[in-house]
């Protein structure tokens, strides 16, 4: 099957194995093209690498769809195909990453050749952009942190209010307890006084009775 950018339809296992073989070849071709010394500009990259990359992507997508449809198959050939596809997928991802780096280098090279900027100035500009991105991320984190602190303070403020209400309630209960204790002491004093009065009356009565008895005995 020729390399095309249209969706690749796979009808059976044999067709899928052929597509897998072609995908492996395309990944190798892309890797060779990326590292070729004849590629000196972004135009070279677009004409040499990009068509191969797009074709490899189309083959990859076709195989991925086919294997998804047969993911429950326990046939040994399907398992071998899936294993080979996974390995090639990782290689394709690596090649795509290397291709992006090479294209960036070519663009930078062309930019330097057309402008008066030095490589050092370009590097400084890149570092400033990266630093600005980091500062932007940190600003977002600081904003989120302030929001979290604000929410925490609000929550703690509610907790402090609840504690204040509880303390006031306890103070009232303590005051009531003190009043009840003082009342109990007063009642205890009154009871003691009554007890002493009763004892005194009893003692006085007994004394009077004894005196009367003694007088009666003497008169007899």
Automatic annotation (TrEMBL):
Q: Which InterPro entries match?
A: T_SNARE_dom
Q: Which key words tag this protein in UniProt?
A: Membrane, Transmembrane, Transmembrane helix
Lineage summary:
Eukaryota, Sar, Stramenopiles, Oomycota, Peronosporomycetes
- Keyword Transmembrane helix part of the UniProt annotation: yes
The protein's name in its UniProt record: t-SNARE coiled-coil homology domain-containing protein
- Outline the extent of the T-SNARE coiled-coil homology domain: 122-184
What domain of life does the native source organism fall in?
Answer: Eukaryota
Transmembrane annotation, as ranges: 195-218
């Amino acid at each position: 099957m020729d390399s095309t950018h249209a969706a690749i339809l796979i009808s059976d296992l044999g067709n899928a194995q052929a597509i897998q073989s072609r995908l492996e070849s395309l990944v190798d071709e892309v890797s060779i093209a990326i590292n070729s010394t004849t590629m000196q500009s972004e135009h070279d990259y677009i004409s040499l690498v990009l068509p191969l990359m797009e074709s490899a992507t189309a083959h990859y997508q076709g195989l991925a769809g086919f294997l998804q449809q047969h993911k429950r198959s326990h046939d040994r050939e399907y398992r071998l195909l899936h294993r080979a596809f996974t390995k090639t997928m990782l290689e394709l991802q690596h090649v795509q990453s290397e291709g992006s780096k090479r294209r960036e280098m070519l663009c930078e090279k062309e930019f330097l050749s057309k402008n008066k900027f030095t490589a050092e100035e370009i590097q400084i500009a890149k570092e400033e952009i990266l630093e600005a991105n980091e500062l932007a991320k940190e600003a977002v984190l600081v904003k989120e942190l302030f929001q979290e602190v604000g929410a925490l303070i609000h929550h703690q403020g509610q907790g402090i209010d609840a504690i204040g209400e509880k303390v006031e309630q306890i103070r009232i209960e303590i005051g009531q307890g003190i009043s009840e204790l003082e009342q109990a002491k007063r009642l205890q004093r009154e009871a003691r006084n009554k007890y002493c009065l009763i004892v005194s009356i009893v003692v006085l009565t007994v004394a009077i009775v004894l005196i009367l008895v003694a007088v009666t005995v003497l008169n007899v």
